[in-house]
Amino acid sequence: MKYVDEYRDRAKADILVRKIETLAAGIDRAGGRPLQIMEVCGGHTHSIFRYGIEGMLPKSIELVHGPGCPVCVLPMGRVDDCVAIAERPEVIFTTFGDAMRVPGSKKSLLQAKADGADVRMVYSPLDALELARRRPQREVVFFGIGFETTMPSTALTVLQAEREGIENFSVFCNHITIVPTIKAILDSPDLHLDGFLGPGHVSMVIGTAPYEFIARFYNKPMVVSGFEPLDVLQSIWMLLRQIADGRCEIENQYARVVDDAGNTAALRAVGRVYELREFFEWRGLGSIDHSGVRLRPAYARFDAESRFAVPNVKIADPKACQCGEVLKGVLKPWQCKLFGAACTPQTPLGALMVSSEGACAAYYQYGGVKRQRDQAAAEVGAA
Amino acid sequence: MNIAPFARKRPRGTVHVPTVTLAHGGGGKAMKDLIDDVFVAAFDNPLLAPLDDSARLDLAELAGQGDRLAFTTDAFVVDPLIFPGGDIGKLAVCGTVNDLAVGGAVPRHLACAAIVEEGVSLDLLRRIAGSMAQTAREAGVTIVTGDTKVVNKCACDKMFIVTTGIGTIRADIDLGAHRAQPGDAVIVNGVLGDHGAAILGARGDLALETPIESDCAPLHDLVATLLARAPGTRFLRDPTRGGIATVLNEIAEAAQVEIEIDEAATPLRDEVRGFCEILGLDPLYLANEGKIVAIVPPEQETAALSAMRAHALGRGSSVIGRVIAGEPGRVTMRTVFGGRRIVDMLVGEQLPRIC
Fold first, then answer.
1. Which of A161, A302, B287, B306 is the most buried (most CB within 10 A)?
2. CB-CB: which of B274, B340, B347 is closest to A346?
3. What is the rounded average pLDDT for all residues in chain A?
């Protein structure tokens, strides 16, 4: 298939893996510690597992699966708010599919649907707007979720609703922003990352400049990466080259899609519709300043939070959950006490087990091969 | 024993209104008219003709065709009722015929129960019954008994069908998932995922136009051909809901073996690949309604492949993987990229009501 197969070429992959092995062997690692590279975005996590990339890399490179799955970092209290809105009889609650199964403190949207709430899966906020046009007597609420990648499509839908004077459409806004989150991770004392794979789709909107602080103030290299497996391998190779050269820069591997300046039309819509929240609660990471957005007062009539009373109760993560440590890369998913026992994709406790982009679900689903190889190696080592 | 003489001679009823009403489920004349007009007219055969509460089958005749009876049932709730490549009627016959066939049975008779929502058009019902009759003819089975219920608006979505089937298994046929052994080939009879993609496309809520048609087809003849040429075949299964990934996991679990498939050898239509790329679906989990997975010992692999490829429904047959000693119960895939990953059972259901 055109524009797909080129980026999954095995021969090119083999060449890159050899280059990565050579570079990695030449990098001096303090105390033999592996080089830790965090892929911030859940889309990368999915590709890494889907194509078995981790198993192709030398042992001296460890991939840390970051917080870039918006479904995974949604706190329970927000899911409870979703359910409260969805259970109102006048509401049709529309959502992307993977948010349906995220556990709230009492139930998920999927359970609320089974209990009679009108919850529908959509592929775009425009589908929700179309539903509002067709069902003027109902209140159609769109569950706005995601980083800067999906923020513009929600914003443009709100602007479209405003232009058409549609009054029965609103957004329950849970959009979050990547830069404060990366900063929070970098400020975390228990972290020793050597570099980042930057989220390509976020950069398609915001460009590469907002990441400059990572190189300048934290002395960490970053490569903004595409999502095909060759993209990921090439980006890892580019990162290693920076580390080997002692450079710390923000490089753009995904230049076929990402303009360094970003997408100005999308940014304009984002700036017009949203404002920063003072703080936003993240599952596993706690409250992070300026990490979420809400609709500006001028668009309050499209804001589900002001249209409907939501409980807005902060619910603590389950005590035994170690999602935070996994998100920061301090623990590997299988090192969590609950992994595969109390917490599985069928009965997720932590949100990392819910979405296919969540590190734990990805490990559970795809990760066994490498884990078993590592365990076997560890046993041989111990013997 | 000849059962036909039990049939009563009576005039066949007709429905003169355009839609089904609750009166058609009331057990009276209106219901008899509906059953005559729609189902009896389409299924017409001597075993059905008496229209008694049960069809009576000749035991000696069945016993002459094998030493075991295969008996199965399946419910069909597909949405939409009519989709590219088929409809709920064709699906309801193929589904049960295929469940019998992959058990090594020759499908013989079906029973059919229809649950119809009031307001459904008679033309639609006639079309679906006609499609069931035609598919049954192709599959060499007769629909010998049935039931019709009409329910209130919104008590079901337009129409559900349940088909139950029996088939006879020859004494020399012994298929079972537990028989899979390291070295066996995993064969499929063509491109995967067409049914799932066709249904999803036909729902129209994705704003994606695709030329993909369901692969829905009766597989009894392909199975018979395969078993004749490769009698050592260990196990057969039709990878419907949950797709090929689910079936392979079930086999690996039952036989306590590992199955390794090769992504590059997994046949997919370009349209289905594109469809999955856009929607973020994994084609290994997409439903099929005209495919079999065959576990065949290596010494009969070539015979199995050539027999299947000579059949109209098996032209695209290929080996997609192999049973290996490995980790019992596990399915892995060599990715096109050179990596290796686990192929697990599907969790939950992304695409409800595909069959």
1. B287
2. B347
3. 89
A50 to B341: CB separation less than 8 angstroms, yes or no: yes
**Residue A368 binned pLDDT confidence (cut-offs 50, 70, 90):** low
Q: For residues B98 and B233, state if they share a domain.
A: no
Looking at the fold, whether B144 and B223 belong to one and the same domain comes out as no
The predicted pLDDT at position A383 comes to 45
8 Å CB contact between B276 and B343: no
Does A366 sit within 8 Å of B339, measured CB to CB? Answer: no
The CATH number of whichever domain residue B332 belongs to comes to 3.90.650.10
Closest chain B residue to the Cα of A12, Cα to Cα: B337
Q: Do B336 and A8 touch (CB under 8 A)?
A: yes
Asked if B327 has any chain A CB less than 8 Å from its own CB, the reply is: yes
What per-residue confidence (pLDDT) applies to A72?
81
Shortest CA distance from B273: residue in chain A:
A1
pLDDT greater than 70 at residue A24: yes
- Residue B44 maps to a domain: yes
Q: Write the pLDDT tens digit of every residue in A229-274.
A: 999 999 999 999 999 999 999 999 999 999 999 999 999 999 999 9
Kindly state whether residues B202 and B335 are assigned to the same domain: yes
Q: Please state the φ and ψ torsions of residue A259, each to the nearest 5 degrees.
A: -90, 135
| Omega within 30 of 0 (cis) for the link into B80 | yes
Nearest neighbour of B335 by CB, restricted to A52, A364, A372: A52
Name the minimum distance, in Å, from the CA of A345 to any CA of chain B: 7
Are B163 and B101 in a shared domain? yes
Distance of residue A214 Cα from the nearest chain B Cα, in angstroms: 31
Q: Is the model's pLDDT at A207 over the cut of 60?
A: yes
pLDDT digits (tens, 9 = 90+) for A110-135: 999 999 999 999 989 999 999 999 99
Q: Write out residues 253-272 of B within 8 Å (CB-CB) of A.
A: 270
CA distance A105 to chain B (A): 20
B349 touching A (Cβ < 8 Å):
no
Task: Number of A to B CB contacts under 8 A, please give it.
Answer: 68
pLDDT the model gives residue B27: 85
Q: Of B316, B330, B331, nearest to B194 (Cα)?
A: B316
What domain count does chain B have? 2
B146 shares its domain with B292: no
Identify the CATH number of the domain in which residue B50 sits: 3.30.1330.10
CATH T-level assignment (fold) for domain A1-23+38-367: Rossmann fold (3.40.50)
pLDDT at B353: 62
**pLDDT at A378 > cutoff 70:** no
Give pLDDT tens digits for B83-127.
999 999 999 999 999 999 999 999 999 999 999 999 999 999 999
Coil, strand or helix at B173: coil
Same domain (yes/no): B131, B241: no
Q: Provide the residue range defining the domain that includes B140.
A: 4-169
Question: What percent of chain A stands above pLDDT 90?
Answer: 60
Mean pLDDT computed over every residue of chain B: 93
pLDDT higher at A319 or A155? A155
Q: Are residues B157 and B298 in the same domain?
A: no
Return residues 180-209 of B near A (CB < 8 Å).
Answer: 205-207
Q: Does B279 touch chain A (CB under 8 A)?
A: yes
Nearest to A369 among B206, B273, B332 (CB): B332
| Inter-chain residue contact B340 with A369, CB threshold 8 Å | yes
User: In the block, which residue shows the tokens 């590992």?
Assistant: B258
Q: Where are the domains of chain A?
A: 1-23+38-367
* End position of a domain, from candidates B129, B147, B169: B169
According to DSSP, the residues that pair with B70 across neighbouring strands are: B167
